[in-house]
Amino acid sequence: MAEKAQKSDAEWRERLTPEQYEMTRKAGTEPAFTGPHWDEKGEGTYRCVCCGVELFSSDTKFDSGTGWPSFTEPVNLEQVELRPDNSLFTRRTKVVCKRCDAHLGHVFDDGPGPTGQRYCINGCALSFDR
Ligand code: FE
C-alpha cells in the first residue's frame, strides 16, 4: 500500500478546481450529464484527480445511462475503500480513494457483468489518461 497522500483542506482547495474540490473533499455529487468522462469511450486509465492513483480502467467502463462515469469494478480493490453512507435517508455504499480520502461516488448492486456491481463515480473526481 502506497503511503497516504495527506494535505490540509486549504491545500486541496488551492490545488483543485471548485467542482473537483466540492465532489472529492466535501462528498458532493455532480448533477448527471454535467461532469467530464460520462460519455468518454476511449481506452485508457482513470485516476484520482486529487492524488493520481490509478482507480478504474476503460475496460470495465459501461454506458449506464445515468450521466455519471460507471464501471463494473476498480482496477485494484486495494486502492478504494467502501464505507456505509446513510445520508439522504437511504442506505448506500460510498467509494473513497484509500490513498487520499477523496470521495469518489457510490457503488450499487445493479451492475452488469460478473461482479453485478455498478461503480457510479463523479467525473470531477477522475482524470483520464489515454
Ligand atoms: Fe486519491
Layout of strands and helices, then pairs:
Elements: H1 9-15, H2 18-25, E1 45-48, E2 54-57, E3 61-62, E4 70-71, E5 80-85, E6 92-97, E7 103-108, E8 118-121, E9 126-129
Antiparallel strand pairs: 1-2, 1-9, 3-4, 4-8, 5-6, 6-7, 7-8
The structure holds fe (iii) ion (FE).
Describe the model.
It is a single chain. This protein has one domain (9-129): Peptide methionine sulfoxide reductase (Metal Binding Protein, Guanine Nucleotide Exchange Factor, Chain A, Beta Complex), CATH 2.170.150.20. It is 12% helix and 29% strand. The protein contains 2 helices and 9 strands, in the order H-H-E-E-E-E-E-E-E-E-E. A 6-stranded antiparallel β-sheet has the order 3-4-8-7-6-5. A 3-stranded antiparallel β-sheet has the order 2-1-9, with no helix packed on it. Strand 3 (61-62) and strand 4 (70-71) form a beta hairpin. It is globular and about 40 Å long. The site of fe (iii) ion (FE) has 8 residues, from loops.
